[in-house]
Q: What sequence folds into this?
């Protein structure tokens, strides 16, 4: 019997799939049962097969009858998300069956892109729709821009879908250039200044996080700005100053928890004309 081949089939499908999917590939019920008996596969719930060590989040999704979505799937895709809670976010189509655990956030909505019955993770467009409904505007915008920056979606393709008003507003403001999340926050927060604000702009062979006007640079430090990275950043800051740029460097906690102070520094720099070309 093709016991090993049955397990390989499931493994190639992400380590978990419907038994009927394996059956459609030509494997018999007897071969599937033999693979389970041999410990090569297990049955997380009736009608599904999984290899030992399958992703725990996928197992929770299949048992609950949902798909991973929103900030959970965004994080799995490597996108910037503000919510660091371990609580699982999932999605389901209104009227669908399934047991929804209380420790799981389930977003009930009609998907932008139809969900295949075998799917356990939402398509990226559905993930962005869920994030929009779940997160505050600037946090959702940061996740959208992270998806654009990683080329998981394009502005052109997103504009072809029908979005609810809040998502449409995000789409109207999104750009593909921000890659650190916090850069996105600065644009809407400083829009009232009515100055050009560009993110990830190349200056003297390096990218700067935010350029306000022609000469005011705002650099945002993350957790990696230590040691050699810090030395390189200091060197680049010195080069920028020699070229006539003014550099303001802030950290994650300042942007998230001390924004009034950061804004005040930027306002005073603008008032002194530091954003203007020499």
A:
């Amino acid at each position: 019997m093709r016991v090993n081949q049955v397990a390989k089939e499931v493994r190639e499908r992400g380590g978990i799939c419907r038994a009927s999917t394996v059956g459609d590939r030509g494997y018999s019920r007897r071969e599937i049962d033999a693979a389970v008996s041999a410990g090569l596969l297990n049955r997380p719930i009736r009608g599904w097969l999984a290899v030992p060590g399958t992703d725990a989040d996928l197992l929770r999704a299949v048992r609950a009858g949902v798909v991973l979505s929103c900030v959970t799937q965004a994080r799995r895709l490597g996108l910037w998300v503000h919510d660091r809670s371990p609580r699982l976010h999932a999605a389901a189509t209104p009227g669908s069956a399934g047991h929804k655990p209380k420790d799981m956030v389930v977003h009930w909505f009609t998907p932008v892109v139809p969900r295949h019955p075998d799917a356990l993770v939402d398509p990226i467009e559905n993930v962005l729709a869920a994030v929009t409904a779940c997160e505050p505007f600037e946090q959702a915008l940061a996740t959208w821009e992270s998806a654009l920056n990683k080329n998981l979606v394009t502005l052109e393709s997103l504009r072809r879908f029908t979005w609810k008003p809040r998502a449409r507003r995000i789409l109207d403001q999104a750009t593909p250039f921000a890659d650190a999340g916090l850069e996105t926050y600065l644009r809407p927060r400083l829009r009232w200044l009515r100055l050009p604000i560009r993110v990830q702009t190349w200056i003297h062979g390096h990218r700067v996080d935010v350029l306000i006007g022609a000469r005011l640079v705002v650099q945002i430090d993350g957790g990696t700005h230590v040691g050699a990275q810090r030395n390189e950043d200091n060197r680049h800051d010195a080069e920028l100053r020699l070229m006539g740029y003014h550099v303001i460097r802030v950290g994650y906690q300042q942007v998230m928890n001390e924004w009034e102070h950061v804004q005040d520094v930027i306002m005073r720099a603008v008032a002194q004309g530091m954003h203007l070309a020499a």
Notes: Residues 182-271 form a domain with the Endonuclease; Chain A fold (CATH 3.40.960.10). The chain has 13 helices and nine strands. Strands lie at 16-18, 48-50, 67-68, 88-92, 104-108, 197-203, 206-212, 216-221, 246-251. The mean pLDDT is 88.
